[in-house]
Amino acid sequence: MTNCNIIPVYIEVYSHYIVYTLVLKYEKTIGIHMQKFIGDSRGVSVVVGAIMLTLIVVTAATSYAIFVSDQQKKIQTVETLKLQQDLENITILALEDMMYSPNSGELENNISFAITNMNSEETVITSMNINNNYIRHFNITRPDGWRENYTMPFNGSGKRPIIHPREQIRLTINISNGDVVIFKNITTNDAIILHIFTSLTNDFTKTFIPPTAIIQIVTESQWNSTSHNYETYLILDGSLSDHPGSGYIARWEWKITTNNSGTIEYDLNRTGRKIRAIFATPNLYHTITLTVTDNYGMIATDTVEYYY
């Protein structure tokens, strides 16, 4: 073997020796440092502290994520409730069966309301009042004629009426038998205000405004061919009577009495927006009363003193 062939082999062997020596030295150094680290309590404390810090961060992040999720659920619940409140729609359509006492003029007996649920979800009624008088007892008539009676204590407990989607019901209250806790009597010329409170905290209100009765008096003198005399006629005109609400005046009724005796000279037997009447007893003060009734049954009166 020549010298040229020996030199490369020598170089390769020497290179392997150097690499092996460096690896042994590195492993020894790492081992010494690991032993020192394990034997040093400060190193263990650092590791434990890092682990605890990691656990704290993870716990805090988890708690925050749960908090955010709960807040999102609460916001979603509030938004859903608000949407349900906005969609709920109870319409009080009409007032029926109005009746007033002829003596006191106070509302008495039954009064009914036509009520419709315009929403696609059912509505639960929690309480009602009429002119700030608490409605304690009432009944509901369903479209099929089925009648349900309800009692609603002041604390809101008990069975609560439900109006089904797109359903129209008839709500009937008996004013005179204690169905309503009266704080102020409802009389002629008073508006009727119904409040319906629901489980979604909505307040559906309808105000029925009574008509306004206005008397105009005009006299006319006309020749009577039968008696061959001029006779004076009293023209009672109620044309200015008005209905400021959604209804209309359906009936005009007139009455004339003499002040000295109270004798009725012209009673309710004749009706009309504009009529003609003859005084039976002239040269006296007369009381003229006009009573107008609207399509809901609400009434209003106007009275004037007139000398003839």
Task: Give the secondary structure arrangement, pairings included.
Blueprint: H1 3-39, H2 41-87, E1 90-96, E2 110-117, E3 123-130, E4 133-135, E5 137-141, E6 147-151, E7 162-163, E8 168-174, E9 180-181, E10 192-198, E11 203-208, E12 216-224, E13 229-237, E14 249-258, E15 264-266, E16 274-277, E17 285-294, E18 299-307
Antiparallel strand pairs: 1-2, 2-8, 3-4, 3-7, 3-10, 4-9, 5-6, 5-8, 10-11, 12-13, 13-16, 14-15, 14-17, 17-18
**Oligomer type:** single chain
Name of the CATH class of the largest domain = Mainly Beta
**Helix/strand/pairing category:** alpha+beta
Radius of gyration: 47 Å
- Helical percentage: 25-40%
- Encode the helix/strand succession as letters: HHEEEEEEEEEEEEEEEEEE
Query: How many domains make up the coordinates?
Result: 3
How many beta-strand segments? 18
Distance between the termini: 165 Å
